[in-house]
Design brief:
Number of domains: 1
Radius of gyration: 18 Å
CATH architecture: 3-Layer(aba) Sandwich
Structural class: alpha/beta
CATH class: Alpha Beta
Helix content: 25-40%
Largest sheet: 7 strands, mixed
Number of strands: 9
Order of helices and strands: EEEEHEEHEHEHHHHHEHHH
Strand content: 15-25%
CATH superfamily: Alpha/Beta hydrolase fold, catalytic domain
Strand order of the largest sheet: 2-3-5-4-7-8-9
Length: about 300
């Protein structure tokens, strides 16, 4: 498998991103991750989606770390400072699962609180369902775990078509278009930084086509099995969707109806588009911290809450 590695010089002087880099070797690919806060604390695993990278969590990581948590934010293979296989065929839903399973296993992460959005949810929710003993709580913002049984909406179909066929794939502008606020030039350049040219974008291009949108998709059976786990999931589960995401809107209500762990949780609707981390970072971080300090503590200390 041929892969590219974005030069370190591309990441110099990024706006509000001064985190020490950390790396793991996974199947001969280098995977980057941010690891901030109390190294002895239970970890919060923040997973980004498409076509972003850990830069998405730059305002949230310090707030959660300041509350005493250990915050880990990996760059998925193909994104950020991680290595980037050059062919779209190098990427599949399952291979991303294999990479992330290796990641949490190598770091031996336990008592994880998952925070996920977009493809971070497709991978992260599977990860938690398939490794439930490693996860103690989940926070989902603008995410899903599709099984192909519900048709994709028009907004997603348009996005999939654009990612598949457009000769122009400007990462920074794409992310900016899915936010309420207008990103600064330095922020758009930071999102562009991992992708010096089109050869680096195979992973970003591949993701929309990997979403299970028909019941015959190869990922559907594994996702259905994960939903069987979630229909019995009683650990704390919080939804923090935004009010302006045309693709994910309403997914929080579906989760609240089907997942027992959502009952009684302080679910919140944040102001923002698809990338709520850009539009409401402080509110998102505060929701995570409050959830961990109150509901999660109550669940694990009060036998009657289980």
């Amino acid at each position: 498998m041929k892969s590219l590695r974005t030069p370190d010089s591309a990441f110099e002087r990024l706006a509000n991103y001064r985190f020490k880099p950390n790396y793991l070797n996974i199947n001969d690919l280098r995977m980057h991750y941010v690891d901030e806060g109390n190294e002895h604390a239970e970890p919060i695993l923040m997973m980004h989606g498409e076509p972003s990278w850990s830069y998405l969590y730059r305002h949230i990581i310090p707030i959660c770390a300041a509350a005493g948590h250990r915050v880990i934010a990996p760059d998925l293979i193909g994104f950020g400072k991680s290595d980037k296989p050059t062919k779209q065929s190098d990427y599949s839903y399952q291979v991303h699962m294999d990479w992330m399973t290796a990641f949490i296993t190598q770091l031996d992460l336990k008592n994880i609180t998952l925070v996920c959005q977009d493809w971070g949810s497709l991978i992260g929710l599977r990860l938690a369902a398939e490794n439930p003993d490693r996860f103690k709580a989940i926070v989902v913002g603008n995410g899903a775990l599709p099984t192909g049984d519900i048709p994709a909406n028009k907004s997603f179909k348009l996005w999939k078509s654009f990612a598949s066929y457009s000769p122009w794939f400007p990462i920074g502008r794409i992310i900016n278009s899915a936010c309420f606020r207008t990103l600064g030039k330095d922020e758009r350049e930071a999102y562009n930084a991992p992708f010096p040219n089109s050869q680096y974008k195979a992973g970003a291009r591949a993701f929309p086509k990997l979403v299970p949108v028909t019941s015959s998709d190869p990922a559907c059976e594994a996702n259905r099995k994960s939903w069987e786990v979630y229909r019995q999931w009683e650990k704390p589960f919080l939804t923090t969707f935004s009010n302006g995401d045309p693709i994910m809107r309403g997914g929080d209500k579906l989760m609240q109806k089907q997942i027992p762990g959502t009952t009684g949780m302080p679910h919140v609707t944040l102001v923002g588009g698809h990338f709520l981390q850009e539009d409401s970072p402080t509110e998102f971080a505060q929701a995570i911290n409050s959830f961990l300090a109150n509901e999660v503590v109550e669940y694990y200390t009060n036998p009657d809450a289980k």
